[in-house]
Amino acid sequence: MLQFRHLPLAWVLPGFLLLVGALPAAAQSSWDWVTMPVGRSSSYAMASTVDAQGNTIVGGYYSADSSAASLDFGNGVTLPAIGGAAFLAKYDVGGACSWAIRLEGGANAQSPVIRRVTTDAAGNVLVTGVCPDSTRFGAQLLRFPTANPTRERQGFVGKLSAAGTWQWVKGLRDTYIGADGVEPTLLAPDAQGNLYVAGTFYDTLRVDNLRLPAGRWRSAFGAFVARFDSAGRCQWARSPQGWCSVADLTDLKVDAAGDAYLVGVIDHLAVFGTDSLWGRMVSGGAGPGPSVPWSAPADAFVARLNAAGQWRGAYDLGTGGSARLTFGANGVNYVAGDFYEPYEHVFTSATGVDTLLGSGSYVARLGAQGQRLALRTTDKVGLVAVEPDGTIYLAGFSQDSLAFGAYTLPARPERAFYVAGLSPTNQWFGVAEVTNPAVVPGWYPPTYPVDLHVRGATVYVSGNHLGTANFGPVVLTSPGAPAAPRGEFFVARLNTAPLGLPQAAAGAPLTLWPNPAHGFVQVATSTGGLVQVQDAIGRVVHTTHLAPGTSHLRLPLPPGLYTFRCGAATRKLVVQ
Fold first, then answer.
1. What average pLDDT is seen over the chain?
2. How many angstroms separate the CA atoms of 558 and 470, rounded?
3. What is the pLDDT of residues 170-214, one digit of tens each?
4. Beta strand spans in 267-359 (E)
5. CA–CA gap between residue 361 and residue 377 (Å, rounded)
6. DSSP codes, 63-96
């Protein structure tokens, strides 16, 4: 069987274009490339990120049988076959692997697990997760005195150069002796190279010379946020107090002032400085506050810490979980997430009261102090990413017929997942789907995404795959298929610009003249607003604001193809 490991769009057969042929050209988008490792092994992605240059870094774990020679990432990059280990791999903008490293625990120990990966402004790779005693990070051996090395893992956070060389690593230990007492799951760098880490712990968190007791009730897990400087020294660690039990931590972001924003869901009372938030509680349970059924929905919250580690406010959102935060312009922020039946959420804002029923996704528009400004919802559920202008991207699961405005994806029992964008004016665009004949209705699809990132008009998806999947015209076949397929992770890039640009909303036309342009362009828009110009790989290369009417805009850009976005309208621009 012909096997594709890394295929640009131009290399595939035109007959496969029927996979997206049901959509009008204005709604379609195209997969630039898809790649996966090969070898006699199984590999799984846990987290990924995309840096400012469009490189993708993915972390996960892999296992191999004793006869496997190596795990081949392509481009001459391999890792030796062992029983089980974690990996980090970096792919360039064209989908070629630049480097890969492994993390391996000591004898008779569990495998390390990577929970989150990100990059800083300099391109350094930052990673966190859990690992057993005697895990080696380059030349450094991380030791955890433990009562049971075969079942206990503790947390770690580390920094690698852009070339994949370890700079430093620190352990995060819980005095609780048990399986994974501390779980760091979130990372966020600031502009000065400091690193914020967040996660959960059970008893007392120990990092460097710091000791942080959990401020939680009963036998539940508490949350922590810790700050490390660029050399890996822990500067402080904080935990909310009260009868706090964290149901989930979903995002961590740092703004230009160095303030950290923690997003998640709580079960009980959490005290963030002077602000107290109530979550759901066991009916009839001990402790203060309201008593409601355990099955009641838990609202998402946002809590803010300044650079010195002082709590500077916390507020609930009145929305569901899995929330992710994006900083917008002029003090406006966005939180996007999902909600599920049978729970009911109520979002009260300046524009009225919105009740979230059934299942779907939302994006909440918030003021600088957390004021609820507006809410947008859709009936589509999946991974959610939101851009600074409020554009939503979804990677969702459904075999049913799906309506995206005037465009419809027909019911397809073999659909594994889809990707779609929703503009700030609720115009759908950039729709694409992935199919796999092995999809079983009602079961988790054999090809599914685990992370979704957006850079301009370019969408990056990482996930896991088993069998044969069709990414539009690109066919991805896992090793051993079809008789005995082995699971592998994948990394894919979707270009929503050539076929899927959102058209200007009614009454908001956008024209560019001349096009091709050289040095300047005349822009005519009836609405004005934020202007972003993105290059061919989705990087923002020019930003400004335009008033309604006609403007002459200087564009000192090198020759190339660009995406010009003004408000909700988008056009292609050629610069000569």
1. 80
2. 36
3. 999 887 665 557 889 999 999 999 999 999 888 888 888 888 887
4. 269-272, 275-278, 300-305, 311-316, 324-327, 333-339, 345-349, 352-356
5. 6
6. EE-TT--EEEEETTEEEE--S-EEEEEEE-TTS-
Q: Please state whether 499 falls in left (phi above 0), alpha (psi between -120 and 50) or beta.
A: alpha
Burial class (CB in 10 A: 0-12, 13-18, 19+), 24: exposed
Across-strand partners of 140?
A: 137
DSSP, collapsed to helix, strand or coil, labels residue 17 as helix
Q: Using DSSP bridges, classify how beta strands 234-238 and 222-228 pair: parallel, antiparallel or unpaired.
A: antiparallel
Whether 294 shows a pLDDT value over 60: the answer reads no
- Residue 232 tokens, joined: 């890996």
Which tokens in the block code for residue 529? 């607003």
- How far apart are the C-alpha atoms of 388 and 146, rounded to whole Å? 45
Asked whether the beta carbons of 524 and 510 are under 8 A apart, the reply is yes
The residue whose two tokens read 């894919």 is 492
- Quick one: which of 301, 473, 438, 476 has its CA closest to 372? 301
Overall size of the chain counted in residues = 576
Pick from 479, 463, 471: nearest CA to 40: 479
With the C-alpha atoms ordered 211, 216, 222, 226, is the resulting torsion angle positive or negative?
A: negative
Return d(Cα 499, Cα 17) in angstroms, integer: 13
- For 471, the token pair is 């990414």
Whole-angstrom distance, CA of residue 372 vs CA of residue 301:
12
pLDDT, tens digit (0-9, with 9 covering 90-100), for 12-62: 222 222 233 344 444 557 788 999 998 777 889 999 999 988 999 999 988
Question: Where does residue 435 fall: left (phi above 0), alpha (psi -120 to 50 degrees), or beta otherwise?
Answer: beta
CA distances from 351 to 365, 389, 486 (A): 11, 19, 51
- Residue 514, preceding peptide bond in cis (omega within 30° of 0): yes
**Of 171, 262, 178, 285, the residue nearest 221 (C-alpha):** 178
- Max Cα separation, the chain? 72
Instruction: Tell me which amino acid residue 91 is.
Output: Y
pLDDT band for position 107 (cuts 50, 70, 90): low
Q: What SS3 state is found at 9?
A: helix
pLDDT interval class at 378 (50, 70, 90): confident
The token pair at 227 is 């700050």
What is the DSSP secondary structure assignment for residue 165, as one 8-state letter? -
DSSP sequence for 144-184: ---S-TTT--EEEEEEE-TTS-EEEEEEEEESS-STTS-EE
Q: Which domains does the chain have, with CATH numbers?
A: 15-84+394-503 (no CATH), 510-575 (2.60.40.3770)
Instruction: State the alpha helices, DSSP H only, in 427-550.
Output: 497-500
Q: Tell me the HSE value of 108 on the side-chain side, using a 13 A CA sphere.
A: 3
